[in-house]
Amino acid sequence: MPSPRRVALLIDTATSWGAGLIEGIAAYAKSRERHWLFSLEPRGKYDRMLLPDHWRGDGVVARITHSALAEQLVDRRLPAVNVSWFRYGENLIPRCTCDEVAAAEMAAKYFVDHGYRQFAYCGSTLRPRHYDRLGEAFAAALARIGQPCQRFAPDPQRFAELDSEQQLQELSGWLSALPKPTALLAFDDIQGRQVTEACAQAGLAVPDHIAVLGGEHDELSSRISSPPLSGVDQAPHEVGFRAAEMLDRLMAGEELRESHVLLPPRRIITRQSTDQVAVPDEMLSAAIRYIREHHAGELRISDLLREVPMSRRALEIGFKRYLGRTPREEIRRVRVEHALALLCDTDLPITKVASVCGFDRPELLTRAFRRELSATPSAFRRRVSQSKAEGN
Question: Residue 380 belongs to what domain range?
């Protein structure tokens, strides 16, 4: 057996993102029968991490969130891969992470698909020096469809000098001044939970007044938020698996074909914080809710017309006006969204997924999936489950 390699994981253990990264790295080592000894300590997301002075090992996977860590890794000439959105050590340290622009665009599309026409963004108040590409990309995606985006942007130095209660009051005041309803993207679920707390303090209902989506899903923050938070699933397991593959090549002395790898986010995990139809017409809202509740059955347009007292033409015009698609297209979109969740969260065969989601035949699911996501259900599942399957 070859000598074991010592690999340091400078990754937080307190979030779903960090835990998923670590699981993906371990899955890669197991699938390739690599004898890696991991150096790992319990850490919070905002802990300032560095290698111990006397640590001797073969490689590092790290969230490089400050220049001192990047300089340390470069000075020691250690094979390393950065899994952070921060770009310290760029062009010197390879990077593998979730594509923040794709995550922002997914969030914007999600809100628009749910009928929202007023938007806001709340960056991380814990990282005032971070260049927030997620927020920039979210605003840019909305600007392309002619929609403005308001941003919570207090003076960083002044805001940092406030205590937590004063910060919450300032955030509450900003939220109160937003038009209602507003769809808000927060930098991550930690920031999203602060937003829902500020909404409660200001007497604002979530999601009725402010729909809140976290840019990086965290299971604990989501669960303890009131209401539970929706978030962008940034596929941390896949990122960790791919980062470990890159590190393996570096430790073997190989050159990487790609030194900057951006993987697409997986999906939006919907919880109560965005579970709202943002359409002002009550009858159209009722029709949309009916689709969400009955899409798994043999749902036809005639069923909608029996549910809401309006003509077929008025229904079609209303859907086009507020959602930008026809009722039939909305039924297909909701069914694909349900299928997406089942492909991620269950091992149901695709034929069963199709049936459960209201598709008469699997090929109809494939056709709809390709139209909505430019991929087939089987290809999507392979991408999602590859690293997990190889790690078992």
Answer: 282-391
* Whether 80 and 201 share a structural domain: no
Q: pTM of the predicted model, to two decimals?
A: 0.84
Could you give the CA distance from residue 234 to residue 212 in angstroms, rounded to a whole number?
A: 17
CA angle 262, 189, 241 (to 5 degrees): 35
Query: For residue 374, what is the DSSP state?
Result: S
CATH at residue 212: 3.40.50.2300
Q: What digits encode the pLDDT tens for the residues 241-265?
A: 999 999 999 999 999 999 999 999 9
H or E element, residue 8: strand 5-10
Handedness of CA 106, 111, 115, 120 (dihedral sign): negative
Q: Domain check: are 109 and 215 in the same one?
A: yes
| CA-angle at 110, arms to 108 and 115, nearest 5° | 95
Residue 48: C-alpha distances to residues 18, 63, 85, 126, 221 (Å): 14, 10, 15, 13, 21
How far, rounded to the nearest angstrom, does the alpha carbon of residue 362 sit from its chain's CA centroid? 28
Distance between CA 171 and CA 168 in Å, rounded?
5
